[in-house]
Design brief:
This protein has one domain (3-386). The chain has 14 helices and three strands. The chain has helices at residues 3-33, 50-59, 62-78, 88-112, 122-136, 141-154, 170-176, 197-208, 219-243, 258-265, 275-292, 298-308, 310-332, 351-378, and strands spanning 117-120, 180-183, 189-192. It holds the Pfam family HGSNAT_cat.
């Protein structure tokens, strides 16, 4: 197997990771400048405009694919090409703790420029999942496969289990499966917004799939496995969703128009992610991962750059959005009728401005990410690997 083939195998991961973080930028631009048209998950298809619905739907791919690739990358870190195996448990523990620290410091401040409430969101979920994987990675691969599938397919069966805020078990259950305030009174409130149990299942499955990306597996075999796995996810989704069998609290129903019927079919719960949510996103993600192994274009090169420095992109884009918000607020003043809505004073009148702003910021962030990527690959500084 040539070095070029091995490189394509790894480049496909960066391209896919780059794509989902660009999609994330679009969604975070929406949350910064279009919050007066906020949507729930699942969305109300009777009141949500189709353009807004599908813009939000795109963002569903971000967390599942990124968490899955985190598990996959952990395996590749543990098993470098032509080098001795590395201690992945230590790396996962330190990296996971680092992400949790970032969540409660830089990330939380970037959203509101204040610390009134600490929201434990996606970085928290990834960090806790990495810490959990550090413990689970000692298990045999077959056990990990069974555990990952059991969590992904079975966690929705736990939905009837609930705890009141004053009951023993509430805090742990709010972290694992239900959203809720861990601290609801006092100077700083703390809310677990991303239940972590399903994400532990996803990161475990990503780790289990790691051997597919080793040098001992031919590209054709890997791509076939990804395509078969992706199609299997989507077929399972179609069966479960069309018959409303399991996994989603909001049933699918045929609507008055084709567009609304499609919206109903694709309307999944994200917190915690339902089984249809994960089958949809990870199924398409597997197909894209197979496709990107042979992608060669300027666009794929740009996405590869973004995907090579995901944490740098994540932190920087949040503060670019924060600064942009205050600059526009200073230049144009509050949007009439918007003051006080969810704490924001400025918003765009049309969704097209969200896409345009995200496109401009993508160009700006590319230059920054390219510079940092070049520095990262030429530097031996210890802290660089964390970004």
């Amino acid at each position: 197997m040539t070095n070029n083939t091995l490189n394509k195998r790894l480049v496909s991961i960066d391209i896919l990771r780059g794509l989902v973080i660009v999609i994330m930028l679009i969604d975070h631009t929406r949350e910064r400048f279009f919050l007066h048209h906020q949507v729930a998950d699942p969305m109300d298809i009777d009141t949500t405009d189709p353009a807004l619905f599908f813009t939000r739907l795109l963002a569903h791919f971000c967390a599942p694919i990124f968490v899955f690739l985190t598990g996959l990358s952990a395996f590749l870190y543990q098993n470098p090409i032509n080098k001795p195996a590395r201690n992945v448990q230590s790396f996962l523990l330190k990296r996971g703790a680092f992400l949790v620290l970032l969540e409660i410091t830089l990330v939380n401040f970037s959203w509101f420029a204040a610390y009134n409430t600490l929201y434990l969101q996606v970085m928290w979920a990834i960090g806790v999942s990495m810490i959990a994987l550090a413990a689970l990675s000692y298990l045999p691969r077959l056990w990990l496969l069974g555990l990952g599938l059991a969590i992904v397919f079975g966690h929705n069966a736990l939905s009837p289990v609930t705890f009141l805020a004053n009951e023993t078990g509430y805090t742990l259950w709010a972290i694992l499966h239900d959203r809720g305030y861990l601290i609801s009174d006092g100077l700083v409130k703390v809310k677990a917004s991303y239940p972590v149990l399903p994400w532990i299942g996803v990161i475990t499955l990503g780790y289990v799939c790691g051997p597919l990306f080793t040098q001992s597996v031919a590209a054709a075999v890997r791509q076939k496995a990804l395509v078969v796995g992706g199609i299997a996810c989507l077929v399972t989704l179609c069966i479960l969703r069309s018959l409303n069998l399991y996994g989603e609290s909001l049933d699918f129903a045929v609507q008055n128009t084709l567009v609304l019927s499609i919206m109903s079919f694709l309307n999944y719960t994200k917190y915690p992610p339902s089984l249809p949510f994960l089958l949809f996103t990870l199924g398409i993600g597997a197909l894209m991962l197979a496709y990107f192994e042979n992608a060669q274009s300027k666009v794929s090169n740009v996405l590869r750059t973004f995907g090579s420095v995901p944490l740098f992109f994540y932190i920087v884009h949040l503060y670019v959005l924060l600064v942009t918000y205050f600059v526009l607020l200073h230049l144009f003043g509050p949007t009439p009728g918007l003051a006080g809505v969810a704490g924001f004073e400025l918003g765009f009148s049309h969704l097209a401005w969200i896409w345009l702003t995200a496109a401009v910021l993508t160009g700006l962030l590319y230059k920054l990410c390219k510079m940092f990527s070049d520095f990262k690959h030429s530097s031996n500084t210890w802290w660089v690997k964390y970004l």
